[in-house]
Amino acid sequence: SRLRNMQLITVLALAGLVCPASGAGWMDASGPVHDASCDVEAVEAANSAQLHSILDEIMNTTYFRLMKVDLSTQCEFFAATAAAPTSSCDSAPPAPALESNPFSQSPAPPKPAACTVEFGGEATAPAPGFLAGRTDLVDTTTSPLENQLHKETQGSEDCNDARFWLDMCRHIHTNSSELINLQLNPEKFTGYNGSKVWAAIYKENCLQRTGDEGGLCYEERVLYRLLSAMHTSINAHISLKYYPPSKAAGRATWESNPQRFFHQYGPHPDRIKNLHFGFVLLLRAVKKMAPALSHWQFQAPTPAGMEHTAMLVTRLLDSSILHSCSPVFDAFDESMLFGKPHHSASKASPFEESSEKVAMDARDNLKRQFKGVFQNVSKVLDCVACQKCKLHGKIALMGIGAALKVLLVPSQLVPTSLSPEELVAVFRTLASWSHAIKGVDELFALARKQIEMNAAERAPEVAVKALDSEQTSAVQAAIKAGLQDTLLSSQVKHSGSPDSDSQMVGVFELDKTLGSISAAATDGVLSQEQEDALITRALAREPELLLLGKHFGHKPATFARHALNSSEGASGGAN
User: Fold this and answer.
1) pTM for the complete prediction?
2) For labelling alongside 91, which of 55, 112, 470, 472 has CA 20 to 30 A away?
3) Tens digits of residue pLDDT in 532-546
4) Beta strands of 131-257 (E only): which ranges?
5) Mean of the pLDDT values across residues 168-179?
6) Which of 262, 270, 272 minimizes the C-alpha distance to 448?
7) Burial profile 247-274: b = 16 or more Cβ within 10 angstroms, e = fewer
8) How far apart are alpha carbons 99 and 92 in whole angstroms?
């Protein structure tokens, strides 16, 4: 019976063979990107088709690989030594512990000594006493031809002045005497644990989470999502380059740690969606920069290098690309910030239902708080004890701040509002998040493969122990027939129940399909009627639907689209 089938799935789930029906540990982010008018699939398609490759080329140019960042600013909040290096540089709060580890074997984490940076070229060692004992120093090697001119912009204290947003990045100092070659300092595991820093970012700046977004106004949600995007990208890059080269371990290059990323983000697809949100916001800012970028002097050692850089930037902003990727370039609407009422299920901004005078005062106060929180977060980054972590954190935050500035100032101010460092930071952050979006899919695919391989190895024996005698016989028969050689092809022969038709029931496919239906309904992709219909089809063990669940279950929105289309096709065929 259907009840018996569901009991069987529950037993297998408790035995650790399959994920619960909710599919929380297996679901990739999919469907609508909250607070943006696009979905995850559109962002990933545009990124894979064109944007990632162009951004990767831009990052290899002289102009965009060099940057001045002051890493010596003193921490104002707590002793940097309090955040001592331990296990990772992700700075994430501890992920919820899983009742059982789906990975049977994981390589031991690298020792902190593996993050030592070698100085290249003619770079000299740091002065005595300066960051003594550090093994995470930033490589500042540059050629004499790579020096550039720099300028600063100043803002206004009047929040109704168009220049109010010009100094968003005032606490991310770029008055360093040395240029940093960012190609020599890629994001990867360093051995640093910055959990205290992230706690300060999230909790000490009125951005503490309460389990949902109901207590956040629109502007707060935007800022939270951007910080979460930065956090997710950092974790993705660390997980992609986690285990350093080792002859003893047989590693010729840096290798990934998908298990780590799965534990942190598998149950939290909303955090992955925040990365997509941040990506489209930055794309919107870059599009607004287009007129200024058409006249920008991209300095390089040779005229050919300058022309090549300008050509690549022009290619990114080419009308055909803007047209084909318009769903992501135009997905964020900056006019919703500090302006018209926001139509959202979450709490509205405090000025929306007030009288005009009170509303204006509340809006002005919100602007000051928004800018103040961002600048406070900028100061918190000075408390990061790892130089490389601080470097990438400051670049990302500068990219966010510069993008917000571009979106909030009038178009005529954009050409004069950006410093060279801010422009580089916007593009580098955009490229970093583009790489992270591709990396997330890679990490989840590797994690799922490992889970399935480990579970498949123990599926037959555990399944037999978990079932009653009648079901045990069916499983043993399936094993004998060679049908239970992989996790997702595992099947149980059902017989003896009143409504049994001796059909092979794909237990794991059914679990995956039910989880996908649940996730799609939660995301609003399915109506109640559609959800009920798909559940009925799944419990009836419809082979086509279970196959869709097997191959598209990790993308609930895509699965739902195909499932509904298959239902319509079946109805049409019946007629």
Assistant:
1) 0.69
2) 55
3) 899 999 888 888 888
4) 180-181
5) 84
6) 262
7) eeeeeeebbbbbbbbbbbbbbbbebbbb
8) 20
